[in-house]
Amino acid sequence: MAVQKLPLAKALNESLRTALENDPKVLIMGEDVGKLGGVFRVTDGLQKDFGEDRVIDTPLAESGIVGTAIGLALRGYRPVLEIQFDGFVFPAYDQIVTQLAKMHARALGKIKLPVVVRIPYGGGIGAVEHHSESPEALFAHVAGLKVVSPSTSSDAYWMLQQAIQSDDPVVFFEPKRRYWDKGEVDVDAIPGPLHAARTARPGTDLTLAAYGPMVKVCLEAAAAAEEEGKSVEVLDLRSMSPIDFDAIQRSVEKTGRLVVVHEAPVFYGSGAEVAARITERCFYSLESPVLRVGGFHAPYPPARLEEEYLPGLDRVLDAVDRALAY
């Protein structure tokens, strides 16, 4: 059947399998992506079925992985890279922001680099230091990179397909604590645009805007608010660069209130850009200031404290109450 119920990680696996089948120029590269199938088993079985020339176990050298991918893309390949954990991407940050992001402009449009950098990100899995970061704003700030994050199995499948087909480099953030959440995937569907926001739940009193791991939390908050007679709309942004400001504006013009939620620290986070733009666009529609909910401006804590660090149901509902109190 075309419609399957899959965990988000398995949806990504099926998407990679489809891409490898459809285009011989698609390659998968990363640490332990082959024989092991990836730390989270997202690439499980792919090397066995497509061979070591297409699913490549690399040395533990993130800068080398990205640099090699840039060279392969220049030769017509479409490399899909796995950075094993979010905090491991920084040795490759220079390659990503000074080479991968700039080559198209540097060559006046003559060179394209269709590279996808997959990064499992965020907390909630009880991991050690450097395994629970949310660095999406660092990449969204860099012109020349597309930055996206799915929150459902269906989006995981289709957004990864679209990222691989893109001629521009895409940083693809995968919410690792949602890897095991199941959802329906229609492999025969016609997907919407990669960077279009999605209304996950309609409402009339307030808009919650989130992406990746926080969409589920916002849906839970909206359900809890409904029990108190509050109608909360949940908007899944899906893309951090570019951002679908038109969709947010339409929602806020209807509800009059906006709360932006993400795992990353509030300070200089993606929510700041959304808040500023929507305040400019919707000044006369807003009934309250745009509020932000996120992590604290502190290094990610040890696992036993992460529940206090991560924005959860209570912090989102507190922001909802504060916005509605104006």
From TrEMBL:
InterPro entries: THDP-binding, Transketo_C/PFOR_II, Transketolase-like_Pyr-bd, Transketolase_C. Its cofactor is thiamine diphosphate. Keywords: Oxidoreductase, Thiamine pyrophosphate. Residues 6-181 form the Transketolase-like pyrimidine-binding domain. Its EC number is 1.2.4.-. It holds the Pfam family Transketolase_C. SMART domains: Transket_pyr. GO terms for molecular function: oxidoreductase activity. This is Alpha-ketoacid dehydrogenase subunit beta.
